[in-house]
Design goal:
By secondary structure, this protein is α+β, with helices and mostly antiparallel strands. The chain contains twelve helices and 40 strands. 22% of the residues lie in helices and 28% in strands. The mean pLDDT is 96.
Length: 676
């Protein structure tokens, strides 16, 4: 047996075992090899940010293996050295012996009843066991359920349909119920397969392959360790926690609509106008003009408007992404300066069709180009006129055959792009000394984004209750992303994507507002087809309900602020899977669409149409009290409670330090502020 920091390498009668802090993580025999190397190619087909990857790879399995000091030498069937696996600290690095092998597959030891979580931000399933997950930054797609009606509509454009694994934010980081985690330290495409009973297969399409391991005594400590490794994100400003951010893309009319929403009793801290730079109408719906400066046509004298709002305690938020429309001014400036990604020849700019218009990509591997974008666009055009926040959209579209300024392979830069985009936004905030005041939010991400991005949003949900596309995916998204170092998460109230006659119902908007009240940031979005869909101010009923939920969100601000302070110290997410605090309750590990909001509140959002009563699981180990009625419940049981609009199923951990605060909250919102 060889002891290496964190690892024990053991030769056995039939092969080799590797133990990590008391957990068996690798078992190699000639019959069940833990290592394969691949030679060949990874083919990528793309369309509008949707990708199809095909592995044209010949795999060669290791045969014999021998421990040699701090390494394992793997041999092929001919007795030739195939690869060496080096163990140092808590990391394993697999180095193929021959350059022809570009890809590495590791099979980690698994138990039959083991659960695995992580994988970045997932939308359909929290527990990854029993499924495979290709990890590649892209559009999640519409109609992710292949049997659903939306998928059938997308049959003519299958690259846009998506599947259960497609996500804006994949990350090759995985947490095991055996209280250890592993992270593939590469931006390459990774294919993780959890369908086998006795092995977790992870294929990395880059060599050498480095894998970091983590262990802890509790799942809470394991999540904190991962957050520390990826570095804690910037903190959210207080103003973002204490009321709603109203998303309107109605030009000058947005200000009058905002006043009417406030007059209806809504607690509002921000007005978000993504159309601040102008609009462009496309077949998909109302899009934006991607030339990042204020549109005098839609928002005359915007700086003065922003100053007036600030006097009222309301911030103005905007929108930006790392692409420049070819018919805009900034595209030509960036082209003249040599700041655009080049095409596969290296000669011309890489131009991408975004569905009705074309854009160039600012080359974020070029430090001067990233600095120019941070200063010239985000700094001078946005922060300097008083903009206090923005959606930092996209980051998924880098072509894999592009030529980059730093000489890196675009196949490896593709997944890294969201991190570079997050860093560019963070640099702009830093240059203007706006940390703790300005906030941006992103949907795209990968390893390393955490250190720069203060807030995720769940991307473009469909405007419905569907399992793979609708409101419930935002819960899975928040919980999965939170486990790998992203403590703050939110979503578009009402969803975004409306296609093929699929439009918002009043019920959906109200249920989404109830869910959003118990997230760090509460923000509305008019969606891709605003005129066809209900908005929070479309009817008196909707507006009254929404206003009530904003007041609830504002009343929750002291608790939310404490959770943000805890996140800054520990990296723990605000929205937490039940098992983080109730590890011994095996049933709690199977709950994927409820969550704890911090340690003291449990939310079971209503995620189906027509429900007026809703089943909830209350974990064992604590007793619980219904927030609204005060009715007590014993933990470790499934209960069903009434769920009228305005009173979503929420429970308080009995005996918690904030019990009086929550009791007052429940009393206020059921007596002085009753549901409509």
């Amino acid at each position: 047996m060889t002891n290496v920091t964190g690892f024990d390498l053991r030769e056995t009668e039939h092969g080799v075992e590797v133990w990590f802090v008391g957990r068996l993580v690798l078992v190699h025999t000639s019959q069940r090899p833990c290592l394969r190397l691949g030679r060949g190619a990874l083919e990528v087909e793309s369309h509008l940010g949707h990708y199809r990857l095909a592995e044209q790879v010949e795999w060669v399995a290791a045969d014999a293996a021998h421990v040699m000091g701090d390494a394992i030498r793997f041999l092929d069937r001919n007795g030739e050295v195939l690869a060496r696996a080096h163990f140092a600290g808590d990391a394993l690095t697999v180095q193929p012996a021959r350059d022809e092998f570009r890809y590495v597959e590791l099979s980690l030891h698994a138990l039959e009843d083991e659960s695995v979580w992580g994988g970045g931000e997932q939308f359909s399933y929290l527990d990854l066991r029993g499924r495979a997950f290709p990890l590649w930054v892209g559009e999640p797609g519409v109609g992710r359920d292949p049997t659903g009606p939306l998928a059938r509509h997308m049959e003519e454009t299958p690259l846009r349909a998506g599947d259960y694994w497609t996500t804006n934010y994949p990350q090759p980081t995985f947490l095991s119920s055996r209280l250890f985690a592993w992270h593939v330290d590469s931006p390459a495409y990774v294919h993780a397969d959890f369908t086998l009973v006795d092995a977790h297969q992870v294929r990395c399409f880059d060599a050498p392959c480095r894998v970091e391991f983590f262990s802890a005594e509790t799942m809470l400590d394991l999540v904190s360790a991962l957050a520390e490794y990826f570095r804690h994100p910037p903190s959210l400003p207080d103003w973002a926690l204490s009321g709603a951010i109203i998303g309107l893309k109605d030009g000058e009319r947005s200000f009058a609509r905002l006043d009417a929403i406030i007059a209806a009793g809504a607690a509002v801290t921000g007005l978000w106008c993504e159309d601040w730079a102008g609009i462009r109408q496309t077949d998909f719906g109302r899009r934006l003009f991607w030339d990042w400066k204020a549109s005098e046509d839609r928002f005359p004298n915007l700086a003065a408007r922003i100053a007036d709002l600030r006097e009222r305690g309301i911030r103005f938020l905007a929108y930006v992404n790392p692409y420049l429309a070819t018919d805009g001014e900034f595209y030509h400036e960036a082209e003249e300066k040599g700041f655009l990604v080049r095409d596969h020849t290296g000669e011309g700019a890489c131009i991408t069709d975004f569905g009705g218009f074309t854009c160039g990509h600012v080359d974020l591997t070029n430090g001067a180009a990233a600095d120019w974008f941070a200063e010239r666009i985000i700094g001078r055009e946005m922060l300097d006129i008083g903009i206090a926040g923005w959606m930092a959209d996209f980051g998924e579209y880098l072509p894999t055959d592009a030529t980059l300024a730093d000489g890196s392979d675009a196949m490896l830069a593709h997944n890294r792009w969201p991190m570079l985009w997050a860093r560019t936004n963070a640099e702009a905030v830093k240059r203007r000394d706006k940390a703790g005041e300005a906030v941006f939010f992103m949907r795209a991400g990968h390893s390393g984004s955490q250190a720069y991005c203060p807030l995720l949003w769940a991307g473009d949900q469909s405007v419905d209750f569907s399992f793979h596309d609708g409101i419930g995916t935002t819960v899975v998204a928040a919980l999965s992303a939170g486990l790998v170092g992203n403590p703050c998460h939110h979503s578009d109230i009402g969803g975004y994507t409306s296609l093929f006659g699929n439009v918002r119902s009043s019920e959906l908007v109200m249920r989404w507002a109830e869910l959003a009240a118990f997230t760090p940031v509460m923000r509305t979005h008019e969606g891709n087809r605003p005129n066809e869909n209900l908005q929070v101010d479309s009817t008196p009923e909707l507006l009254a309900h929404f206003a009530r939920m904003t007041r609830l969100h504002a009343a929750m601000a002291p608790y939310t602020s404490n959770l943000c302070e805890e996140a800054a110290r520990t990296g723990l997410p605000l929205q937490r899977p039940l098992f983080l605090h109730y590890w011994d309750d095996l049933q709690a590990r199977r709950i994927e669409r409820q969550y704890l909001y911090g340690p003291d509140l449990l939310l079971a959002p209503v995620l189906e149409s027509g429900a007026r009563y809703w089943p909830c699981y209350l974990p064992a180990g604590d007793d619980w009290q219904h927030l609204w009625s005060g009715e007590p419940f014993v933990g470790g049981a499934k209960v069903t409670v009434a769920a009228p609009f305005g009173l979503p199923p929420v429970f308080v951990r009995k005996g918690c330090a904030r019990a009086d605060f929550f009791r007052g909250l429940g009393t206020h919102f059921t007596t002085k502020d009753p549901p409509e």
